[in-house]
Design goal:
This protein is an all-alpha fold and 474 residues long. It has 20 helices and no strands. The protein has one domain (35-454): MFS general substrate transporter like domains (Growth Hormone, Chain: A), CATH 1.20.1250.20.
Amino acid sequence: MSKPSSVHIEASDGGINQREDAGIKEAQWSAEIDPALLQKVIRKIDMLVIPFVCITYLITYIDKAMLGYSAVFGLKESLNLKGTEYSWLGSMFYFGYLAFEYPTAFAMQKLPVSKWLSGNIILWGGITMALAGCSHFDSFLGLRFFLGALESCSTPAYLLITATWYTVEEQPIRIGWWSTFLGIANSFGGLLAFAIGHIDGSLASWQYQFIIIGAISSAWGIFMFFNLAENPSSARWLNNEEKEIAIRRLGPRHHGGNISEIKRYQLVEAVADPKTWIFFLCGVCTQVVNGAASNFGSLIIQGFGYSNLVATLFQIPYGMVILVSNVSAMYIQRWLPGQKRCLVGALYLTSTYTASFAMIMSLITANTGGSTKRTVVNAIFFIAYCVGNIIGPFAFKSDEAPQYTSGIVAMLAAYVVEIFLLLSFAVYMRRLNSDKDKTLEREGWSLDRSGLQQLGGSVADQTDKEDVHFRYSY
């Protein structure tokens, strides 16, 4: 049974509903595409779409990690923080993220993703700069909430952009590319904090950090607003022939339209689907580790007796480990028969959680059909993202410094649980694929392109469950 390259993915936002406006006739999916021209189009997309996601991912992570860097440059003393107040500053960001996750998810189903993301970047850059003006805990806490609210669109937007432009087989590699910028952000952020720490001015070092990174964020948001294409048909850097190929190469089952209708049955199916809750638990596990590491990493290093400047420099090799781990994980899962993402994710948890987080995001994109269902599953996953990041900082108790025994135990427990979940998910997906194979065999259908054409050439906005031709990746 053959497997078409994009048999079960459909961009939930910003696809090809404008193709006729661009002067493109409906493609004949069975027509041959010139391989050389196809590779040229893919290279263009890689060069003119992915860099926007990569740089935005880098900036957003540095925004969040700046709290940890600023803590070693006098933030806690300047705000006169006591007890668990610093942990609350780390967690409050994700309360804002959590509160606005559903509104921003549905906004991106109704509005252009590129413009929504750009507008939020501009605003959160302003909030980041405003943090430098805080002189007490309450005002800083409030701004952290709004910063999280604005950043709630970031990673869901990256996933939607990737799904809009790439086939299901291509998506894990592209997600791997932009997720590696988490490692670059750790290294670059540490180096940036080190450089800013040498500024001798009228403000404290931690204030300069927020002002500089906030200004960079807002400037980038303005640039992206005018330059990131929403979909193939609106890309100024593709001519009509290239636009047609960019659409055709995704296949007839990559719907790509801007489906703004919210379908109640898909919402119910998303909530009732066991996959959704496996993703949820995996998200909690990875982000318990992230919430702890991003907020307490520099403080742990400083607790070993290093200066504040040296503590920030230690983030550089840490970031390189993340980078190598993410890149290698994405390519290894591609080379393994059947793209064994769960196996690779479980293995890489033993070295760094970031590779498994990127793998889980690619699993969600590849294994969820239906625009409303995908929106709901993404939103639930990022609720888990918030929950994990809220829990993580509180696992580190100030009276246990610098060993933080409870925090280390919590991180190890999260690793073990997630390994079990990923392996269980792989077994479950294999069983679901087997059930679909039996249904196709019983009905006498095939999974090749001729079979798709017999069913009408394209499929409406179906979920992975109701589409008998959908195949799960694991």
